[in-house]
UniProtKB/TrEMBL annotation:
GO terms for biological process: acute-phase response. Major acute phase reactant. Apolipoprotein of the HDL complex. Residues 95-139 are annotated as: Disordered. Coiled coil: none annotated. This is Serum amyloid A protein. Keywords: Acute phase, HDL, Signal. Residues 1-27 form the signal peptide. The keyword Signal applies. Belongs to the SAA family. The keyword Signal applies. It comes from Bos taurus.
Length: 139
């Protein structure tokens, strides 16, 4: 009878270990996706603020700020910031010549500067480095 209790106890113990591993991995993914969601909201907030401010030479500041805020959420936020930033720049590569009349050289130069500001913010550096003088404190 003793071996039966030992086998059942071992099965229960093994089951508990496996469940805790699965739940642990599950919670890590949920955390990552939660960070990504909040990071995407940070990026949207920075974009909305940029559109509202409509302030000359402020776009690099808003790029850096959105990426900075998103990356502070954790790995999921940093991932979301990179995906959104890269997608935005890739889309602009096609839309700017059509709607703004910029040449490919102008667009590439601006895109590189935007991506540098994005990386600056994602790396945890102060986005105020790009803040233009006179931008209202609200932003």
């Amino acid at each position: 009878m003793r071996t039966t209790i030992g086998v059942h106890t071992m099965k229960l113990f093994t089951g508990l270990i496996l469940c805790s591993l699965v739940l642990g991995v599950h919670s890590q993914w949920m955390s990552f996706f939660g960070e990504a969601y909040e990071g995407a909201k940070d990026m949207w907030r920075a974009y909305s603020d940029m559109r509202e401010a409509n302030y000359k030479d402020a776009d690099k500041y808003f790029h850096a700020r959105g990426n900075y805020d998103a990356a502070r959420r954790g790995p999921g936020g940093a991932w979301a910031a990179k995906v959104i930033s890269d997608a935005r720049e890739n889309i602009q590569r096609f839309t700017d010549p059509l709607f703004k009349g910029t040449t490919s050289g102008q667009g590439q130069e601006d895109s590189r500067a935007d991506q540098a500001a994005n990386e600056w913010g994602r790396s945890g550096k102060d986005p105020n480095h790009f803040r233009p003088a006179g931008l209202p404190d609200k932003y």
